[in-house]
């Protein structure tokens, strides 16, 4: 079945924007719980899926809400961990060029991303996505995922659930989003996803399920 992937950095690596205690709870409790629930709910689906991406798509298609919520959250968190780095660098290459062309500047994109994430009502996710070269900022509710939008590749995501920021920023989601954008957003990863959106490489995928599980 699916496993909880290790973080690509230490629990204290994203301080002070995301504290060690927040990250331990977020990864070790919240994400772990979504993975465990996914495994429990997917038990018995046999060979209907080979990956978490398959499971997100098929649970959405079949209207299996509880499974979709947990599988979607398992995937979204796996992706979210990749979107952060303690050593950020600015966007480069085609991504940098097309941010300028489509939003006017990186700062204009920053303003838009923070505004969309701040005004999003309730729990969810703020995404920078690409459809081919075209870039867009979207938000999704709860476990919502751009994986189910044809041709759309996520480049970056920030978690808007209160568990992501409440211990460190209390109710100030805008402060969290600003600090996240300025100090943690991993443009190297976004650039690789952008290349994938344009067919130049493979997009990030959640680690494959281990063990049979699929029989
Ligand atoms: Mn979360």
Explained architecture:
With 215 residues, this protein is mainly alpha-helical. The chain has helices at 20-42, 52-62, 65-82, 93-103, 106-119, 166-169, 173-183, 187-197, and strands at 124-131, 134-141, 153-159. A hairpin with a 2-residue loop joins strand 1 (124-131) and strand 2. The radius of gyration is 17 Å and the shape is globular. Residues 26, 30, 77, 159, 161, 163-164 line the site of manganese (III) ion.
In short:
It is built from 8 helices and 3 strands; from the N terminus they run H-H-H-H-H-E-E-E-H-H-H. It has 215 residues and is mostly helical.
CATH homologous superfamily (4th level) name of the largest domain: Iron/manganese superoxide dismutase, C-terminal domain
Low-pLDDT parts are none
User: What composes the largest sheet?
Assistant: 3 strands, antiparallel
- What's the shape? globular
Question: Oligomeric form of this entry?
Answer: single chain
Quickly name the level 1 CATH class of the largest domain. Answer: Alpha Beta
- The proportion of residues forming helix, as a percent range, comes to 40-55%
Count of discrete domains: 2
- Give the strand content: 5-15%
Strand order of the largest sheet: 2-1-3
- Tally the helices: what do you get? 8
What is the rounded distance between the termini?
Answer: 11 Å
- For this structure, the CATH topology of the largest domain is minor pseudopilin epsh fold
Structural class: mainly alpha
Known CATH architecture of the largest domain:
3-Layer(bab) Sandwich
Rg of Cα set? 17 Å
List the bound ligands: manganese (III) ion
Number of strands: 3
What sequence of helices (H) and strands (E) makes up the elements?
Answer: HHHHHEEEHHH
Mean pLDDT: 96
